[in-house]
Amino acid sequence: MRIVIALGGNALLRRGDRPDAAVQESNIDRVTSAIAALAHDHEIVVTHGNGPQIGLLAAESAADPVLSAPYPLDLLGAQTQGLIGTLLVRSLHDALPGHRTIALVTHTLVRSDDPAFEHPTKFVGQVYPYDIASALARRRGWHIAADTTGWRRVVPSPAPERILETETVHELLAGGALVVCAGGGGVPVTADPDTGALTGVEAVVDKDLTAALLAEELKADFLLILTDVPCVYADFGTPGQRPVLGATPADLRGRSFPEGSMGPKAEAAARFVERTGGLAAIGALDAAYEMVHGTSGTLVRPDLPVM
């Protein structure tokens, strides 16, 4: 079975962790243990979030007095693909002796007229108290929004149209490699309509929606979305909160989820299942093996045809 695994942005940096390299290195074994348990029997493609990492690099770049202007988000996204990719490849090399593993810098085509450029929604970087976040926003020209425990920077998140390196990933899988790609949703680029020339854009593509598109393009059997909760919850955060253990795309679309967290995950799972007839699951990193075998998480199956 071919499985695309989408790791949440907090897989290497949990909420409250200092964004130190040592912290991410100490968290990586937990991540690769979950992947390795599946890699023995299945073809695996891994994607990952990069919100904490790209936010850190963006803040450092904005504060660097040597630079005449901060580095753009597309180049910072490429840096996070290398950073997180090498951590995953090194750890997977040790967890899966003899198994070929590669991290691939990947580009995602977006539309230059996507309305998301006018309405930033994607959280990046650390959580701040409101007074600090608002001061940074004024000084650095950021947009900010309330997150669960404070305020964070938000950036545009255009819809992924195509992953440019899909054929290369196909070839690597055919050669028996485990592929890490499309990190942070892929480096966002637009293409000139006449020449096809690529231009990086100031955005971060949602990694779950990119994972769904990648899984579709790769003809994957299963999309596994790993996060920091055990499953999807109906009425999350209310006294009536209850787990949703099984769902169809229609079920997920009939519920309301937070736009900055579970919303894209639910939409990604619904899109993949709807377009391919495959299966998707949303749940906790440590239960990845159990999710594929239907004993944990929220399993998303195709809608039954109307008779």
UniProtKB/TrEMBL annotation:
Gene Ontology terms describing biological process: L-arginine deiminase pathway
Occurrences of domain Aspartate/glutamate/uridylate kinase (ranges): 1-276
Keyword Transport: no
UniProt feature coiled coil, ranges: none
Cross-referenced InterPro entries: AceGlu_kinase-like_sf, Asp/Glu/Uridylate_kinase, Carb_kinase
Keyword Transferase on entry: yes
GO molecular function: carbamate kinase activity
Lineage: superkingdom: Bacteria
SUPFAM superfamilies: Carbamate kinase-like (SSF53633)
UniProt xrefs under Pfam families: AA_kinase
One GO cellular component term noted in the UniProt record for this chain: cytosol
UniProt entry keywords in alphabetical sequence: Kinase, Transferase
Family matches, as PANTHER family: CARBAMATE KINASE (PTHR30409), CARBAMATE KINASE-RELATED (PTHR30409:SF1)
Family label: Belongs to the carbamate kinase family.
Name by which UniProt lists this protein: Carbamate kinase
Record organism: Streptomyces triticiradicis
